[in-house]
Amino acid sequence: MWRFLFLSILIASLSLNIYLLLPVKAPVFIEETFNSLIKVAPAPSEINQIKDNKSLYGALSTSLSTSDPSSQSNQQLESLESLESLIKQTIDSQNYFLAANLLYERSLEDQKSLYRVKTYWLNDATQLLKNKQYSLIEDSIDAFLGYSPDDLDFLFLFVELRLAKQQVLLAVNKAFSLQYHTFDLDLQRQSIDYAQKLVREEINRLYQLSLWFELAQFTTEVLAIEPSNAEAQWALAQAQFHLGEYHIALESLNSLLDDPNYQVKANHLHKNIKLALQRPMMVPLTRKGDHFIVEGVINNRFTVNLLIDTGASISLLSQSVFEELVSTTQVKYIKDIVLITVGGEVSSSIYEVDEFELAGYRVKNLIFAVSPYMNKSNDGLLGMNFLRLFDFHIDQTNNALRLENKP
User: Fold this and answer.
1) How many other C-beta atoms can be found within 10 angstroms of the C-beta atom of residue 260?
2) What pLDDT, on the 0 to 100 scale, is given for residue 210?
């Protein structure tokens, strides 16, 4: 029995020694896989070629992930400078919307570079405005504001563009809106001041040209934007007065009657409107042959019947009427002059009356010449020194004189 056990142990030991002495051979598939990995790895020259062919924007991200920390800053700077140069070239080629898209590729922290690009773009747009290239500057401004809607420099340039195109109301509207594009209180105040300056300039221009209808329209629009604009309110009341819209003008004046800055002149205009409402639109005339006689009042006391003479530069009174006048009221002597008449030169004296009224149309300090050679059929002449103060028209069909206030 023991011999059988000894033989079994001997056989097992010999088998183990034979297995350990045999060479170990790796599976074929492991060797093939390893060799394939070696074959597909790029050579150093191929790696450099791949780097050179990378896009401008992909290069930036690759460099940050593969380079060592000491070189990341230089690589990022070079990429940003290349992008900045590309944006400027795109602006020069007037492809403004592409330039705006390229701005989104910039690092948000790179404010200095962004400022340089914006300054370059703004100078380019300003030059377009000077050259009156309105279509191009429209695209330029729209593109940049698409990227930065609250940029006050480009918003201001938009206002300047509207002014250059004589779109004043659009410019004013945009100027008032500038205040909503910033949280800075000083900039908000400056924006409002700028808008009000534009309103003031346009009001003065329309007033000087006596464009009353346009002035009324403009100020109405301004008050819709800024209801508290007293300057526009005052201009609107004046425009309505000159347009003969007296009742509406009174309503426009109501808010200014107690305003310390407008109280005096608002009350004066209020008084003139009341007087205008009391006088007729047409002054009746009396026809004498081819001439017309109108009745007037001097110094609110003395009534005269004067022949309307548009060829006379100065109004005249006959000597007899003048003597009656000075017996009832005071007049002021001015000087002696020589009048040129149809019959030749005539010596005359000039006097000033305090007030002359024609059916409610009053003129202060009106000049009359006194002539002893006046026709006794009337008291004198009503000349252009009175008529030119109004827009007047003689209605020969209805024997009436139409007078309208001038500015």
Assistant:
1) 6
2) 86
Do 182 and 152 form a contact (C-beta atoms < 8 A)? yes
Distances in whole angstroms, Cα of residue 255 to Cα of each of 229, 262, 266, 277: 11, 10, 9, 20
DSSP 8-state class, residue 254: G
Helices 263-278 and 230-242, axial angle in degrees (round to 10): 20
CB atoms within 10 A of CB 112: 9
Q: What is the mean pLDDT of residues 58-69?
A: 40
Fold classification of 282-405 is Cathepsin D, subunit A; domain 1 (2.40.70)
- Residues 6 or more apart in contact with residue 56 via CB below 8 angstroms: 79, 82, 83, 86
C-alpha atoms less than 13 angstroms from C-alpha of 401 in its C-beta half-sphere: 28
The rounded distance, in Å, linking the Cα atoms of 260 and 317 is 44
Q: Are strands 344-358 and 291-298 parallel, antiparallel or unpaired?
A: antiparallel
Cα 120 to Cα 141: distance, rounded to the nearest angstrom: 13
**Domains 111-278 and 282-405 alike in fold:** no
Q: What is the Cα–Cα distance from 396 to 290, expressed in whole angstroms?
A: 10
Residues sharing a CB contact under 8 Å with residue 185, sequence separation 6 or more, in sequence order:
none
Mean pLDDT of all residues in 24-37: 41
Greatest alpha-carbon span in the chain: 183
Reading the block at residue 21, the tokens are 């002495």
User: Are the CB atoms for 144 and 176 separated by under 8 Å?
Assistant: no
Whether residue 74 has pLDDT greater than 60: no
The per-residue pLDDT for 343 is 62
The model carries a pTM of 0.56
Residue among 325, 337, 329, 330 nearest 369 (CA): 337
- Identify the CATH number of the domain defined by range 111-278: 1.25.40.10
pLDDT band per the 50, 70, 90 thresholds, residue 164: very high
d(CA 239, CA 236): 5
Tell me the C-alpha distance between 181 and 231, whole Å: 25
User: What does the domain layout of the chain look like in residue ranges?
Assistant: 111-278, 282-405
**CB-CB contact of 352 with 332 (8 Å):** yes
Alpha helix segments (H runs only) across 41-68? 44-52, 56-66
